[in-house]
Prior knowledge:
Blueprint: H1 15-18, H2 39-57, E1 69-74, H3 80-91, E2 95-99, H4 112-121, E3 126-131, H5 136-143, E4 149-155, H6 161-175, E5 183-187, H7 194-205, E6 210-214, E7 230-232, H8 235-238, E8 244-247, H9 263-270, H10 274-277, E9 285-287, H11 300-303, H12 310-330, H13 334-342
Parallel strand pairs: 1-2, 1-3, 3-4, 5-6, 5-8, 6-7, 8-9
The structure holds phosphoric acid mono(formamide)ester.
Amino acid sequence: MVNKATRKTDNMIGKDLWNIQLDNNGNLKHLLTIEGLSTEMLTSILDTAETFAGVNESVKKVPLLRGKTIVNLFFEASTRTRTTFELAAKRLSADVLNINISTSATSKGESLLDTLRNLEAMQCDMFIVRHESSGTAHFIANHVAPHISVLNAGDGRHAHPTQALLDMFTIRRNKGADFGKLRVAIVGDLLHSRVARSQIHALNILNTGEIRVVAPKTLLPKDIEQMGVSVYHDIQSGIKDADVVIMLRLQKERMQGALLPSEQEYFQLYGLTEERLKAAKPDAIVMHPGPINRGVEIDSTVADGPQSVILNQVTYGIAVRMAVMSMTLGSHSTSDDKQRKSS
Ligand code: CP
């Protein structure tokens, strides 16, 4: 197990970036990154999601965000994140606008800020933003009106906080709330993965017993060891006795230059097969944020096998996003509302 004292704590990382997430009362106003969240806040999000998981299984709709308008602004492709945010908003009774970026006025040269100003003029309450550039969600949060919440749905290589939260929810549902007992292995393209960065922050905040990363040197960020993880280049030893194995997609769209010989060779060295999975604990769960590349990072027999919880992750994404939306919009003070009414 890694010495927890050697881990860089969240309080030491990028404080200027994450401190705008909380309002003056310490409530969640935006969700831009996992960094800087307290264990109590993260646990509170997961607990709230647990109550919404019950809603999703039975009544399907609650009136918590009736009258609120939520805007999906996805400048990058998405299946799971965009649709589960939309479903989450609808199950909270909010109105949802899905802006089609390719047919919006941004294609005529309208700037991001002007687009936001126009959406603000339509009395929107929340922007959910995915963008290829790291820091876009922070930029937007710094420029919107006080009553608006911004949720980061993935920015460049930086962060994908709701994905990490739904992954923690999935682990907690399958392995219990004591993360200190767990050995978690994250395997694959960590260099380009905003999901992995957010997962590592979340696992550290929840005091996970051991966090391992498994990848070729070319697919690991230089600062990875400072994040309190142990590094492996061999998958068999990297997933040995793991309780949780998280596979990552090769992010070819973000790769510059030849970081890999070929997908076939990558699969031979790092692909998760039934045979390799035997090195993990017999009751280990296999996770993947999706989209999966079958035969590249994971074999179909594992992706569709008894230890896979990949589709459960998708389902839990709705409850987790309901929790984040209700907590952020619920944090707005009366003065914010007054400011909106007078603006
Ligand atoms: N996990 C994830 O972000 O998937 P999408 O790209 O489909 O949203």
